[in-house]
Amino acid sequence: MSAGSPRFSSLRRGLADLTALQKGAQYRQWTVLHQAAFGGHFDTVKQLLEQHNADKNVTCAIPSLKRSPLYAAVVGGFENIVEVFLDKGCDVNLGAGCCFPLNAAVCGGNNDLVVRLLNAGADPNLITPTDGSHHLGPCQTPLMEAAGRGHLKLVEHLLGFGAHVFHPSME
């Protein structure tokens, strides 16, 4: 392969993109897979998962958050990348604090992502411990987030999937 060939240029561009993703990941303490998912880089996500065996359930370097690449894709609003992770069998309930994929979809008001995550087994009753052990303080359930933001359709979806109106840990 010569240095001027289209294939070489494409490879060089891909490596430059990967280097940029790595640099961007450092400040969030994310992996390259997180950064690619958050940035909407569909082909890069697929390549990392399929050709480089990237761990689909890897979490960021901040143990108290456990942000997953799926969470990053949800925050970025990239439904096609969320689909890739769900098709690969990602843990839809992996997270901590307010950093669960379902919470992120609810906060973003994304009906389609909320329903897709619920259908994939997301727990509508996940909540941060209220004992103050999380650095963000007590968070809310997805239902509380949806109600507080006035997302009636999301409230209906969450209730339909078994969200508790009165969460047991708050009674």
TL;DR of this structure?
The chain is mainly alpha-helical. 52% of the residues lie in helices and 0% in strands. The model is unreliable at 1-12, 18-27 and 129-137 (pLDDT under 50).
Question: Helices and strands in order, then pairings?
Answer:
Elements: H1 6-28, H2 32-39, H3 42-50, H4 69-76, H5 79-87, H6 101-107, H7 111-119, H8 142-148, H9 152-160
| Main pleated-sheet profile | none
| Spatial extent as radius of gyration | 18 Å
Separation, N- and C-terminal Cα atoms = 67 Å
What's the β-strand tally? Answer: 0
Q: What is the ordering of alpha helices and beta strands?
A: HHHHHHHHH
Q: What does this protein structure show overall?
A:
With 171 residues, the protein is an all-alpha fold. The chain has 9 helices and no strands. The chain has helices at residues 6-28, 32-39, 42-50, 69-76, 79-87, 101-107, 111-119, 142-148, 152-160. The longest helix is centred in the first third of the chain and has 23 residues, at 6-28.
